[in-house]
Write a structure and sequence with these properties.
The complex is a heterodimer of chains A (113) and B (114). Chain A is mainly beta and 113 residues long. Chain A contains no helices and 12 strands. In chain A, strands 2, 5, 6, 10, 11 and 12 form a 6-stranded mixed sheet that branches. Chain A is globular. Chain B has 114 residues and is an all-beta fold. Chain B contains no helices and 11 strands. In chain B, strands 2, 4, 5, 6, 9, 10 and 11 form a 7-stranded mixed sheet that branches. Chain B has a 4-stranded antiparallel sheet with strand order 1-3-8-7, with no helix packed on it. The model of chain B has no long low-confidence stretch (mean pLDDT 91). Classes of the chains: A mainly beta (113), B mainly beta (114). Chains A and B meet through β5, β6 and β11 of A and β4, β5, β9 and β10 of B.
Chain lengths: 113, 114
């Protein structure tokens, strides 16, 4: 079975500070991992994905994530937060192409001016 | 290239009624997945359609049903609506074939059951 745990349902950072959103996964087979962002009253937008190539994945809007198999983690980072980064962030895991996604419960990011 | 579209954007129904939600997949995609996102929660997988056949189902009762059409668009039908069915319903399309794929999400349909 696959599952995702996102530690911290709410994270607040100051504008310009490092953003770190945590995601740990559970999977019995090599996973595919994704980060999505959701702005209020909108659908999910893909930020980045890990599909067994490079362990450090770069995404849109300056975000990146590192796959660490030994820690079963896929944390999302951004060196410098911007006001426009305030949103809900979801980590998701799947195990083969076309399969269902298992989502975490989300982390709400607040950026303080 | 058009993205995933869903209709309607908002819907209000009463308990016991039936509802149909629609999704047009992104151009070139052959797979559609439906998710339910309750307030403050992550999306939960309902089911997936590939080439007009159900290709996986989450832990949802049979009153949740779906269809996929030859043009790969899809419908989600919910019968005998319950208050707990109030949620954002998300459709995602993808290409199932060689290589890895990514699910691209539509804006969702907000369903309120009174």
């Amino acid at each position: 079975a696959q599952s995702v745990t996102q530690l911290g349902s709410h994270v607040s950072v100051s504008e310009g500070a490092l953003v770190l959103l945590r995601c740990n996964y559970s999977s019995s087979v090599p996973p595919y991992l994704f980060w999505y962002v959701q702005y209020p009253n909108q659908g999910l937008q893909l930020l980045l994905k890990y599909t067994s190539a490079a362990t450090l994945v770069k995404g849109i809007n300056g975000f990146e994530a590192e796959f660490k198999k030994s820690e079963t983690s896929f944390h999302l980072t951004k060196p410098s937060a911007h006001m426009s980064d305030a949103a809900e962030y979801f980590c998701a895991v799947s195990v083969w192409t076309g399969n269902q996604f298992y989502f975490g419960t989300g982390t709400s990011l607040t950026v303080i001016p | 290239e058009t993205g995933v579209t869903q209709s309607p954007t908002h819907l209000i129904k009463t308990r016991g009624q039936q509802v149909t939600l629609r999704c047009s997949s992104q151009s070139g995609h052959n797979t559609v997945s439906w998710y339910q996102q309750a307030l403050g929660q992550g999306p939960q997988f309902i089911f997936q359609y590939y080439r007009e056949e159900e290709n996986g189902r989450g832990n949802f009762p049979p009153r949740f049903s779906g269809l996929q059409f030859p043009n790969y668009s899809s419908e989600l039908n919910v019968n005998a609506l319950e208050l707990d069915d109030s949620a954002l319903y998300l459709c995602a399309s993808s290409w199932t074939g060689t290589g890895t794929d990514t699910q691209y999400f539509g804006p969702g349909t907000r369903l309120t059951v009174l």
